[in-house]
Amino acid sequence: xxxxxxxxxxxxxxxxxxxxxxxxxxxxxxxxxxxxxxxxxxxxxxxxxxxxxxxxxxxxxxxxxxxxxxxxxxxxxxxxxxxxxxxxxxxxxxxxxxxxxxxxxxxxxxxxxxxxxxxxxxxxxxxxxxxxxxxxxxxxxxxxxxxxxxxxxxxxxxxxxxxxxxxxxxxxxxxxxxxxxxxxxxxxxxxxxxxxxxxxxxxxxxxxxxxxxxxxxxxxxxxxxxxxxxxxxxxxxxxxxxxxxxxxxxxxxxxxxxxxxxxxxxxxxxxxxxxxxxxxxxxxxxxxxxxxxxxxxxxxxxxxxxxxxxxxxxxxxxxxxxxxxxxxx
Length: 329
What we know:
With 329 residues, this protein is α/β, with parallel strands linked by helices. Helices cover 35% and strands 15% of the residues.
């Protein structure tokens, strides 16, 4: 019986679903010897069960994947895969006829909706209304209709630069279509099959200055570390909005904070920070026009079950020799 090692942080009910479905398919579920629940930001601990497995599901330890002679399919529980984007690992998997898949298909919809929610909340001044409503004493609440109406904006016709273009960015572009916003995507290599105007990421300086909304969807890699540094953030059009649902490590947060305090950047909506959790005393918590969500963009009711269904679908495709969903190696 082939073995599926799982260190994903799944609920008891979802783990029961996984165990039952694997049993139906003739697979054995192997759990970590220690505590499981590795996250997309924290690598799983080394585990003998992983080394001896045929399939790894979750956030498996890279050293174990390299040491294993049997793991052929790696199914991650994240859209990002920076930790695994290594030539030695890719070579090892290819050498044993293996593959590595992300969960981009699970997370593209919630992350894209999160971006659009950010945009609408900022444009329609929902944050200002919530702040007014949240006064601890009724006497602190006003009725700032004139101010909020005067500050509210339309998204219609505004410009969006999507920095980083994969499944999430493609879905963002689709959702923005009915709002009739002008979208440009920036990616490492333009393929020609993109559904929106696309430019190489080396032109980012030009396009962040063009946009009313700069959406950072870059993965966290050595190449992208500090990508939005002081110089690039300084090129953002005065008053434009900045969003980050990629990785916190891609942004110089000190420079972002300065831009917000000085009023050059119109506002920031951040779902990711560096570090995470963001320390309670960090300036971004209280920066003007800055909203922080605690890395929840990919979350939704049924997330764990969707990850399991994604794995099961790829297992069946793997057995039939069909193309795998979200394969990157």
